[in-house]
Amino acid sequence: MNKIELQAQLDLKKWLDSETQHRDMCGMYDYCKYCDINDATPCATASIALEEATNAIDDVKYAHKSLGKNFDYEKVMTKKANRKPLTFAEKYALSDDIVKERYEILKNAFTDTEKGTLPIKSRISKQCDTYRRGGDIIGKITIIGTSLRINLPLDPDAPEFNDGKTPHVNMGHKKVYEEVPFQFKVNSKLALKRALALIEIVKAL
After folding, report:
1. Helix (H, G, I), strand (E, B) or coil at 140
2. Strands 169-170 and 182-186: what pairing?
3. Quick count: other Cβ atoms within 10 Å of Cβ 99?
4. What is the pTM of this model?
5. Which residues of 111-125 are buried (b: 16+ CB within 10 A; e: fewer)?
6. Burial class (CB in 10 A: 0-12, 13-18, 19+), 36
7. Which helix (H) or strand (E) holds 122?
8. 8 A C-beta contact, residue 190 and residue 198
9. How does DSSP assign 21-75, residue by residue?
10. From CA 158, how far away is CA 44, in angstroms rounded?
11. What is the DSSP letter of 114?
12. Which H or E run contains 185?
């Protein structure tokens, strides 16, 4: 069934339900939270988005590993409900596909090195994913809330990073970020593009 056929089917159901309930049922279905009224087939698109989101949650529920770490969905959700801190791997598992896709892009950017140069290796700890070249930390990836962030060994006060185009935070006051005080939030396509440029700057140091 294509989107146009699905839209027609959902429109008919909505009309019949509205007749039965004696009220307009538009906006009353579970998939309505994904609705974009400007879409040519809003109900169909929203219904498909809900199905994909549900399948993604099911995948997480039955996963036994996340980034190579043991993962128990029920235990993680209990920790979250009790406001206990989650590990990086647990946060990753609960993240949406966009965050996971951006993480993979950032990881590849860090570890992709030219032949003959020192390799950059990743190590996942409870707090973050740390990247080292030799004995030096050249970056960290963290997830705070639902936000993906990178920390780099750049000077947060340097003029070239304070032109308004690269909003960042100085996290050098925290021990875990002493070597990588420059924190940049990767929460959009543009931010991802800028993050990749920052990683290249660090790799060239």
Report:
1. strand
2. antiparallel
3. 18
4. 0.72
5. eeeeeeeeebeeebe
6. exposed
7. strand 120-124
8. no
9. HTS--TT-SGGGGG--TTSSSHHHHHHHHHHHHHHHHHHHHT-SEETTEE--HHH
10. 49
11. -
12. strand 182-186
Contacts of 54 (CB under 8 A, 6+ apart): none
> Tokens in use for 157?
């006060």
Q: Which domains does the chain have, with CATH numbers?
A: 1-62 (no CATH), 95-203 (3.90.1150)
| Single-letter residue type at 33 | K
- pLDDT 10s digits, 71-117: 888 888 899 899 999 999 999 998 888 899 999 999 999 999 988 88
What percentage of the chain carries pLDDT values higher than 70? Answer: 96
Q: Provide the pairing of β-strand 120-124 with 182-186.
A: unpaired
Q: How many other CB atoms are found less than 10 A from the CB of residue 169?
A: 14
Q: Which residues pair with 142 in a beta bridge?
A: 149
